[in-house]
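Q: Can I see a sequence and its folded structure?
A: Here is a first one.
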Amino acid sequence: MANEIPVSEIPIGDMASNMGIVLTSASARTVVGTMPVAGNTQPFGLLNGGASIAFAETLGSIGANIHAGVGRVAVGIEINGTHHRSATSGTVTGTATSLSLGRTVAVYEIVIRDEKEKLICTARLTCLLRDAP
């Protein structure tokens, strides 16, 4: 289940597409993607904290769904984040790393950095793994 999946085969959903999120690699253990700051800002021109959290949840959920496997789905049940600094331009990169991959729960730490590798946000996502409806 930890094998890397071709990113072209992974659906990311309308919201993530609208936000400009692009996957660069994906496996159950690690998911990496990018997101532009432009189009995801609050009124003062800073990267919106909600956009960072949506980005984090997208990356972690993709890893959890890969881990869940065929016939199962992962649904987010808890996310929290700490915003360390703002970004005003460029692209941010997020890396979701599994902390725990169980039969019913998967937990990820997601670290978001700017183009200068400065820490923008850290988040933790917990997903419940269920049989697909």
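Q: Show me another, different protein.
A: A second, unrelated one:
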Amino acid sequence: MLAQTVQALGALLIGGVFVWAGVEHFVKFKAMTAYLAARQFPAPAFLLAAGSALEIAAGSLLALGIAVAVAAGALVVFTTAVNMLLLRFWACEGLERQTSRSAFLVNFAVIGGLLLAATV
């Protein structure tokens, strides 16, 4: 009983973070699109909308305990792609490198949590 409660809370927390981020990306859509365009992403508005919608949908499923393995798997793929494409700390210097590397490593911890969630 306790293990199930803890697992449900963990899924709610991880899923909730993705829902929050996806909603925030839509709220800040213009600025986020400009950021992706400056980083030379193709079709930045489409990529931002698709990624944000995926965060909201999969995060909601995970948080609610519905299709957890599928939702967690989708978020693993999404987070891995974002990590590799946006948090390229190895191409930065100074404080930007430290900040990007920290975010990169935190995302890998989140991926670990998602993998655990997928196996429950």
